[in-house]
């Protein structure tokens, strides 16, 4: 009996369907990064970041492919000095014959698979919607909350300490979310009717400007506001492969990029 075979190219094509690579930002380097497109794939590991621990985990799971959110090769490499971080990781991928694909700012815009949407669903926001800014997603709280109470809810949900920039005298009805580093989105969030924005990194001048207009920015940390995207993406990919009867297992990493103290 002939068994259908998945290749790195098969997975790359599916990712391009759900989050077209040509929508990524000019500074970005999402897409195929390491390996061979024709390599057969039976196990895939999803991760936010490529680390030595993640590569070891992928090798133990017999994965032929890693899909990361953050590109390992982001800036042009002028050499492959193996004493340096990125070249060393590339050498480990090659040693274990593991290919690498990155989905970054292209998937950040996805209404189905972005980290922002994943966090919104965790917070059980209602009437989830996109704005004119493709990286901003808005949703309504089931019960309007005081800013401090909302900060506690976000912290409990993401299991991280939350920093709150600014004050708002009333209740928060509408929350904007932009996973990762996107504090510049506060203006668009405010114009779209939100009283607060949750993101992963906050620049000082954005916090100052937002606070001056009684708008709140919550800082949930880059990792915590993005890692929730992995499970839905894994489920979507596994479902797509199952539908065409490809014998592939999709795994989500158990490794953390770093620990916060």
Structure overview:
The protein has 261 residues and is of the alpha/beta class. The chain has two domains: 127 residues, NIF3 (NGG1p interacting factor 3)-like (Udp-n-acetylmuramoylalanyl-d-glutamate--2,6- Diaminopimelate Ligase, Chain: A, domain 1, 3-Layer(aba) Sandwich); 110 residues, NIF3 (NGG1p interacting factor 3)-like (Udp-n-acetylmuramoylalanyl-d-glutamate--2,6- Diaminopimelate Ligase, Chain: A, domain 1), CATH 3.40.1390.30.
Topology:
Blueprint: E1 6-7, H1 8-18, E2 31-34, E3 40-41, E4 43-47, H2 52-60, E5 65-68, H3 85-95, E6 99-102, H4 115-122, E7 126-130, E8 137-145, H5 147-158, E9 163-165, E10 172-181, H6 186-191, E11 196-201, H7 204-212, E12 216-219, H8 230-243, E13 249-252
Parallel strand pairs: 4-5, 4-13, 5-6, 10-11, 11-12
Antiparallel strand pairs: 1-3, 2-6, 7-8, 8-10, 9-12
Q: Give the CATH level 1 class of the largest domain.
A: Alpha Beta
SSE sequence, one letter per element: EHEEEHEHEHEEHEEHEHEHE
Radius of gyration: 19 Å
Give the number of domains: 2
Give the overall form.
globular
Number of helices: 8
Q: Can you name the CATH architecture of the largest domain?
A: 3-Layer(aba) Sandwich
Strand composition percent: 15-25%
CATH structural fold name of the largest domain: Udp-n-acetylmuramoylalanyl-d-glutamate--2,6- Diaminopimelate Ligase, Chain: A, domain 1
Low-confidence stretches: none
Largest sheet: 6 strands, mixed
Helix content percent band: 25-40%
- Kindly report the average pLDDT value: 96
The strands making up the biggest β-sheet line up spatially as: 7-8-10-11-12-9
Main structural class: alpha/beta
CATH superfamily of the largest domain: NIF3 (NGG1p interacting factor 3)-like
Total number of β-strand segments? 13
């Amino acid at each position: 009996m002939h068994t259908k075979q998945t290749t790195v190219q098969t997975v790359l094509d599916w990712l391009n369907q759900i989050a077209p690579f040509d929508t990524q930002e000019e500074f970005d380097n999402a897409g195929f990064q390491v390996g061979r497109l024709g390599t057969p794939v039976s196990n895939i590991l999803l991760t936010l970041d490529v680390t030595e621990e993640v590569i070891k985990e992928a090798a133990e799971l017999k994965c032929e492919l890693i899909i990361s959110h953050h590109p390992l090769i982001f800036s042009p490499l002028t050499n492959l000095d193996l004493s340096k971080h990125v070249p060393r990781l590339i050498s480990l991928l090659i040693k274990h014959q593991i290919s690498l694909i990155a989905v970054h700012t292209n998937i950040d815009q996805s209404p189905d698979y972005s980290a922002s949407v994943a966090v919104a669903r965790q917070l059980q926001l209602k009437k989830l919607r996109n704005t004119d800014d493709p990286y901003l997603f808005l949703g309504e709280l089931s019960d309007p909350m005081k800013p401090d109470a909302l900060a506690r809810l976000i912290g409990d949900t993401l299991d991280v300490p939350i920093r709150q920039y600014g004050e708002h005298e009333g209740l928060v009805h509408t929350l904007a979310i932009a996973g990762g580093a996107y504090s510049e989105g506060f203006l668009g969030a405010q114009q779209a009717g939100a009283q607060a924005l949750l993101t992963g990194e906050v620049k000082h001048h954005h916090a100052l400007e937002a606070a001056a207009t009684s708008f709140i920015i919550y800082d949930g940390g880059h990792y915590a506001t993005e890692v929730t995207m992995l499970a839905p993406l894994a489920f979507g990919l596994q479902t797509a492969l199952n539908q065409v009867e490809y014998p592939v297992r999709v795994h989500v990493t158990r490794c953390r990029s770093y620990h916060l103290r």
